[in-house]
Specification:
The protein has 1234 residues and is of the alpha+beta class. It contains 32 helices and 49 strands. InterPro entries: Ca_channel_alpha-2/delta, VWF_A, vWFA_dom_sf.
């Protein structure tokens, strides 16, 4: 009886199954059952993904190689990370800082020494022109030869140091337009030889200059810099620039401009007409242009009231080019007022208020405080007593040291205000009886200047005013007359930030009267401080440089490399913003540092590899650290290092005779593929790149080289490639271009990365859709398989896969990534090698998009139907361009599904993160998704609209999320980006989208904005960012993925790329069936629900193999006991859902409609008999099987329970909808983010 019953059930199973499908298709269109996904399908994908990633990455096996090397190295020194590392004492830390200080000081001393040698030889030439060999014909800097475009002087070639075309074989000359017609010839070849020697012997030196005060100019190397229509515009040729070298203090300067009606007086005989006010405005612009960056200035316009440039409040402007432009724009529309008399009392009150502001800020301890008055004096002073009282009050507040300089435009014999002008200039020093102040017995301030200039001089009035600095005493001590002045870092369009060092040149004795000109050298800030920028100690410890006078930071791991090119002048940041955990007293101690080492302990958020990853730092856990600091000799710079207590262990140092690899490496140096006349076997070309199919290649980070910036932007010499190759092959010692302090770590890493063991491990696990393998270590060693020749600028440590993996040790990091070998966007998986505290690096793989989609679709087959749309996201809310071919790259959930973003933000699942890019002057908005690790999140129970139902499910131990929504096409869903479901700032614009609301303004927590940016509040007057210490200012630096440099760009290859055969593409890299089937060894796996391209196999793969894990259809994982699926039909969506050229699948809308109608009729006939013949629990079991064997197994189970209702199917309890309140947000390491 039971056998007949089960046979009958087997025969009719397909009919019943079809009936239920039809029923479910009809009924489920308005029901979103999240449990169908999160109880079986998505956990199955999660298990398969983790299994695949673990087997494919082989991080445990790689970590084992490093660990075995540590143990094996106990008998040899310098073989990597030895056991029993000793803790660092405080003296060890002081020695570490002192070694770094010596390196930086040596660079500075060598640069200044080179400058002084040029100065001394130039002075010898000037004072004894007959000595020395004569130089050859002069090459013009500002080339204007016939038929040759300006700037294209003969002999130019690319030089990596300058990132530009220059002629490094000789000097060039130029002169100003106003210079004497007398030709200037550098007759002494010794001066030029010194310049050439400096260039060859000191890679930190960029441009070298000589200039005379009468406008002649020499430059090495040759290039059209500071040129305008054949003449030089170098400030070094200006008398004011050279004179300022002798000034011992910077300026705080306020210029008062009389704008009363009388200043509209015209100068007779001038065409076009010139008024006194126009002359005064021109003088202000001339003065402002001649100020140094450490000077401060402002303008007060005096008419019936007073006006100053907007936005500065009670402070002066730093004299940067940006602020000089602001002053010029402020004066441009200025016209005389209708008031007959300027209110000088209020004008001087405002001027002294500005000077008081600088004193209160204590920016610079010792300055010249100066007020300049520009007027014609053709007015009546109505209240001289009040005016002088304002001056006296201001002098009392400023220690009676403010100097008044009055420049009087005289157009007639009568100047009504002359007596008052005399008193303002004399400040009661009573040089004659007319200058005495009534009721004052002694001087109010220092003796000033009153200079009367006839109006007929016109614009020469500005020339005289611009010489005001000569009024102040210069340097008098003999040693100080040769003082080297450093001009604040400024932007060079090619090199980034540079510093100019200048020293005066004399024609006789060292005194101002014999000042002849100046010698100068430009130095790259990056080259000068590259030992600080590339300081390496373990993973997190770091170093910094801060300027003492204003407390601004020049170098810090939160800042961009100073070599990075910017579009605007640099703006530096205060120490309190970059180091908010330092107390005010600790910051004060740093700025007051002397040359000896001092220290303090602090709690700091780690660290070098955590900064600039996009990780939120505001609430991050702090770690104890020791901060050591000292002033660099003869400079205003303070050097500091931060060593975290967890990293206070010392690696063993290499001995002199143990600095080789120790064995013949199996890896190739990456440029070895290009350095030989006959490339190694297996070398091929792919999309302009060069790679080798069966070898690992090694590339070093630029920071391990002695001159990183020169290495990045230069061709690697053939002999240097040969040295690197010999080093890897155990045929030579390490090249001298590698920094000695990192050599121990580099060799320790190379013993693994260049070994046969790693090559075999990677080659044996190359299946499973993997097209690339790579690894990066903290020492700067990067390896790739298949091998690839990379540009010098490539640095694996700068990319997100490395930084993010180190920030979240042990997690799986998924990200879109440009392929090293093809340039196509693919999916990368990465994770750390080892666990804290022994992390050896980060290893990763690259997988084609379709292969990764196959891993998902062949596990979660419900997403292949026409009811649901599934997406893969990363935990920053961006969609992976994997499951759908149509969407543009870098789409965010706020722009794709704004209604969903609003829901997630309201329930604090999607949290905003503001970061700050100081190099760009921007705050940027990003997001982080904190999704509960238990069941994910789904729509709230009251939501009836199927288009607003969803499931967001986290893949544990990774940053990957799965989003499931109703199919937008078949469900006729619209996103309706209108309130309350809208997100603002979503209109994509070149260079980014501006935020509607910025971090500094109050933003309600429920406001939704697409990722956007807003400008940092720049205080242009102080040339610094405003509110950088407020709670509203984000502490997190922004992360930007570096662009992949081109191999054919400067610094890419050591010579033009050879003609090579094209590379064979790996089968998984084909995204389309037609392309796959063109290759004989590849086949389109049509037996899979979501076909992919793979290598033709003759034997069945093991179920646990990597290839099987990725490609095998996983129905056994998505059905069985405990499953809650309702769908077992085989219809799939069209190509708009699945992508590729898969023509073997069904899913047309018309066919599906017919099937639904037919199956519905069958269901009506069969359902009655079904419910009478077969128990409901048995049918549920039948629904969960897909084969006759499964049906037979269910029947056997039914026979056992035929007389009882106690059949237990182990269906797990499922939590209800509205899971926001049911599951707390996890913040542990198992979450997608900490």
């Amino acid at each position: 009886m039971n056998t007949d019953y089960c046979n009958f059930a087997i025969l009719r199973t397909s009919f019943f199954f079809a009936a239920i499908i039809a029923f479910d298709i009809a009924s489920s269109q308005n029901v979103f059952n999240a449990d169908d996904f999160r109880t079986t399908a998505l956990p199955a994908f999660e298990r398969k993904f983790v299994t695949y990633a673990t087997e494919a990455l082989q991080n445990d096996s790689v970590a084992d190689l490093f660990t075995r090397n540590i143990h094996r190295g106990s008998g040899r020194r310098g073989q990597g990370r030895s056991q029993g590392q000793a803790g660092l004492s405080h003296d060890d830390l002081k020695q570490m800082l002192n070694r770094l200080k010596v390196k930086v000081d040596t660079k500075y001393s060598n640069t200044v020494g080179a400058l002084m040698r040029v100065k001394e030889e130039f002075e010898r030439h000037v004072q004894h022109p007959s000595l020395g060999p004569s130089s050859g014909p002069q090459q013009p800097c500002c080339y204007t030869g016939p038929g040759v475009p300006p700037g294209l002087a003969p002999g130019l070639r690319y030089e990596g140091r300058y990132r530009d075309q220059v002629n490094v074989t000789r000097e060039c000359v130029a002169k100003t337009q106003a210079a004497s017609s007398t030709p200037f010839t550098m007759k002494d070849e010794d001066v030029v030889s010194l310049m050439k020697g400096n260039f060859q012997n000191n890679t930190d030196i960029l441009w070298q200059y000589l200039a005379t005060v009468d406008g002649h100019y020499v430059q090495f190397p040759t290039k059209d810099r500071y040129c305008d229509r054949g003449h030089t515009t170098s400030p070094l040729t200006q008398r004011w620039m050279v004179d300022k070298l002798l000034q011992s203090k910077p300026l705080n300067l306020v210029i008062i401009v009389d704008a009363s009606v009388k200043m509209n007086s015209r100068v007779s005989g001038k065409i076009p007409p010139v008024t006194h006010l126009v002359m005064a405005k021109d003088a202000v612009r001339r003065v402002a242009k001649e100020l140094a960056f450490n000077d401060r200035v402002s303008v007060v316009v005096a008419n019936g009231s007073t006006v100053t440039p907007p936005g500065c409040g009670d402070r002066l402007m730093t004299a940067t080019p940006r602020n000089v432009g602001i002053i010029s724009s402020f004066l441009l529309p200025l016209a005389p007022s209708v008031f007959p008399n300027p209110d000088l009392g209020q004008a001087f009150q405002t001027a002294y208020s500005l000077l008081r502001g600088e004193k209160a800020a204590k920016n610079v301890k010792d300055t010249y405080d100066v007020i300049i008055l520009l007027t014609n004096g053709e007015f009546v002073v109505t209240n001289e007593k009040k005016l002088l009282a304002e001056v006296k009050a201001g002098q009392n507040d400023l220690d009676n040291k403010v100097t008044h300089l009055v420049y009087l435009i005289q157009s007639g014999s009568v100047t009504p205000a002359l007596d008052t002008m005399v008193k303002l200039a004399d400040l009661n020093n009573q040089r004659n009886s007319a200058t005495a102040w009534q009721g004052e017995s002694g001087p109010v301030g220092p003796v000033g200047l009153l200079k009367k200039l006839q109006a007929l001089v016109g614009f020469f009035y500005g020339d005289e005013v611009a010489k005001f600095y000569r009024f102040f005493p210069g340097l008098t001590a003999a040693g100080d007359m040769d003082r080297v002045s450093a001009y604040s870092p400024r932007r060079d369009p090619n090199v980034g930030l540079i510093i100019t060092y200048v020293v005066p040149v004399y024609s006789g004795t060292k005194e101002p009267s014999s000042l002849y000109g100046a010698a100068a050298i430009d130095v790259s800030l990056t080259s000068l401080f590259d030992d600080v920028i590339h300081f390496q100690w373990k993973l997190q410890s770091y170093s910094f440089i801060v300027e003492r006078n204003r407390g601004l930071v020049l170098v810090h791991p939160k800042l961009e490399n100073p070599a990075k090119q910017t579009e605007t002048d640099p703006v530096f940041t205060a120490l309190e913003f970059l180091e908010p955990t330092f107390s005010p007293e600790q910051r004060r101690r740093i700025l007051m540092a002397n040359v000896s080492v001092s220290s303090f302990d602090a709690e700091i958020v780690p660290g070098r590899t955590t900064y600039r990853t996009g990780q939120e730092l505001l609430d991050s856990e702090k770690s104890p650290a020791t901060v050591l600091y000292c002033r660099l000799p003869d400079t205003d710079y303070v050097l500091g290092i931060v060593i975290f207590r967890s990293e206070m262990t010392s690696p063993s140092a290499p001995v002199e005779n143990d600095v080789t690899l120790g064995f013949k490496g199996d890896a190739l140096y990456h440029h070895q593929l290009l350095a030989q006349n006959k490339p190694p076997e297996g070398v091929c070309a792919d999309s302009g790149d060069v790679r080798v199919s069966d070898k690992v290649t090694v590339k070093f980070s630029p920071e391990i080289f002695t001159d990183p910036e020169v290495y990045i932007h230069s061709k690697e010499p053939t002999e240097e490639i040969a040295n690197m190759t010999g080093f890897l092959n155990h045929e030579a010692a390490p090249p001298l271009t590698i920094r000695p302090e990192v050599l121990t770590s580099v060799i320790g890493d190379l013993r693994i990365i260049s070994s046969m063991a790693l090559s075999r491990l990677w080659q044996d696990t190359s299946a499973g859709g993997i097209v690339e393998r790579f690894i990066g270590t903290p020492s700067g060693v990067f390896a790739a398989y298949p091998g690839i020749s990379l540009p010098n600028a490539f640095d694996g440590k700068k990319y997100g896969w490395y930084r993010e993996s180190l920030a979240l040790p042990g997690s799986l990091w998924v990200s879109p990534r440009l392929s090293l070998t093809t340039g196509e966007r693919r999916v990368s998986l990465s994770t750390t090698v080892g666990q804290l505290p022994n992390i050896f690096g980060v290893t990763g793989i690259t997988v084609p998009k379709r292969s990764f989609a196959g891993l998902f679709y062949n596990t979660v087959e419900l997403c292949l139907g026409s009811d649901y749309t599934c997406h893969l996201l990363t935990d920053d809310g961006y969609f992976l361009d994997v499951l759908h071919a149509a969407p543009p790259a870098q789409r965010h959930v706020t722009s794709v599904y704004p209604w969903l973003a609003n829901v997630l933000i309201r329930h604090h699942v999607m949290m905003p993160i503001w970061c700050t890019s100081l190099s760009k002057g921007r705050h940027s908005l990003t997001y982080i998704l904190h999704v509960p690790q238990t069941n994910g999140v789904t729509h709230e129970a009251p939501v009836q609209d199927k288009c607003r139902q969803f499931l967001l499910y986290p893949v544990k131990a990774s940053n990957l999320l799965v989003l499931v929504v109703f199919n937008r096409m078949s469900g006729k869903c619209s996103e309706n980006n209108i309130p309350p479901e809208s997100c603002s700032s979503c209109q994509r614009q070149p260079g980014g989208t501006k935020c509607a609301r910025c971090v500094a303004s109050p933003i309600p927590p429920s406001v939704c904005q697409c990722p956007c940016y807003c400008d940092v509040d720049l205080n242009v007057c102080q040339d610094s960012y405003r509110h950088m210490t407020d709670a509203t200012s984000p502490l997190t630096p922004c992360y930007e993925e570096p662009e992949m440099p081109s191999l054919t760009a400067p610094g890419g290859a050591n010579r033009p790329l050879p003609i090579l055969p094209p590379c064979d593409h790996l089968c998984p890299s084909f995204e389309k069936q037609a392309d796959c089937e063109k290759v004989s060894q590849c086949e389109w796996k049509t037996e899979l629900r979501y076909p992919v391209c793979d290598v033709i196999t003759t034997t069945t793969s093991s179920p646990t193999s990597t290839s099987s894990t990725l490609l095998k259809s996983s129905r056994s994982l998505t059905s069985g006991p405990g499953s809650t699926y309702k769908f077992g039909y085989t219809t799939v969506a069209g190509d708009h859902q699945r992508g590729g050229d898969d023509t073997s699948s069904l899913g047309s809308g018309a066919v599906a409609g017919i099937v639904v109608v037919v199956l519905a009729v069958m269901a009506a006939l069969l359902l009655i008999g079904y419910y009478k013949l077969i128990r409901p629990r048995v049918f549920i079991r039948l629904l969960e099987t897909e084969s006759a064997a499964g049906v037979q197994e269910a029947c056997n189970s039914a026979q056992y329970h035929s007389k009882t209702d106690s059949l237990d199917l182990n269906v797990p309890a499922v939590s209800p909808s509205g899971i926001f309140a049911a599951a707390p947000v996890s913040t542990g390491m198992t979450s997608s983010r900490p």
